[in-house]
Amino acid sequence: MLNIGLLQTTTGIDPAAEARWLADGIADLAARGAQLIFTPEMSGLLDRDRARAAPHIVAEADNVVLAAVREAARAAGVWVQLGSLALKADGDDPRAVNRGFLIDDAGGIRARYAKIHLFDVALGTESWRESAAYQPGTEAVVAATPWGALGLTICYDLRFPALHRALAEAGAQMISVPAAFTRPTGAAHWHVLLRARAIETGCFVIAAAQTGEHEDGRATWGHSLVVAPWGEVLLDMGEAPGGAVMGIDLAAVAAARAKVPALEHARPFTLVRA
Predict the structure, then answer these.
(1) Given the residues 41, 130, 232, 264, the one annotated as active site
(2) Is residue 268 a contact partner of residue 23, using CB atoms and an 8 Å limit?
(3) Is the whole model's pTM more than 0.90, yes or no?
(4) Which of 22, 34, 102, 249 could potentially form a cystine with 5 if both were Cys, beta carbons 3.0 to 4.6 Å apart?
(5) Residue 213 is a catalytic residue
(6) Is residue 28 part of a domain?
(7) Is 155 considered catalytic here?
(8) Structural domain tally of the chain?
């Protein structure tokens, strides 16, 4: 049995404050028995005002939230999947990168993942163009943990089943989906998409989410979920910020895949337009 912890946050515009909140939350969940802790997308900063946010978007080595979470993981002796941070990218592209991390119980970084699919949508009263501020990642990542393989995704990646299938085919038994889902899309699609990805892949899907009314004026859906490989919702954290701990049995992955071995049954095909 693996005890996982989820932090559901209402991230604001001050990374130093978020660093303290995350460190305290990790310590609390570890004290409650969590061995592997998940945090949402943009755990350190949510700010639609790009000019105000700019001074906080720094290189990985200078990010106070990453440093605090690494130290908290080391101090508590737990692993942390830090959902993502807004970071200064390498190279000449002026856009930032939306990058998640897998941190071990010594505070070391075991894996990095940059969000591949960027949220460029118009939702009536809301309009988002993530690609204007962030460059897309290009590499899917499956990372080893002491308990099993973990596939890394971020938020809008949820709508791309081929990515999740590739992670499962590469050995993932768990898939992390840290998110900051809008309320319109969350109400319509959050539960059904997470359940679908779990059923399709036979993986545990673990989705730590942003929630509530944020300092920059946005509102997020919350409802951090843990979904079993057969599609059952094992945990729904509702809309309040906070933490939760629960046990999962990774033997359920093999059991679900034995019942419906869809990963083995995929066949090549040719598309014909009639």
Answers:
(1) 41
(2) no
(3) yes
(4) 34
(5) no
(6) yes
(7) yes
(8) 1
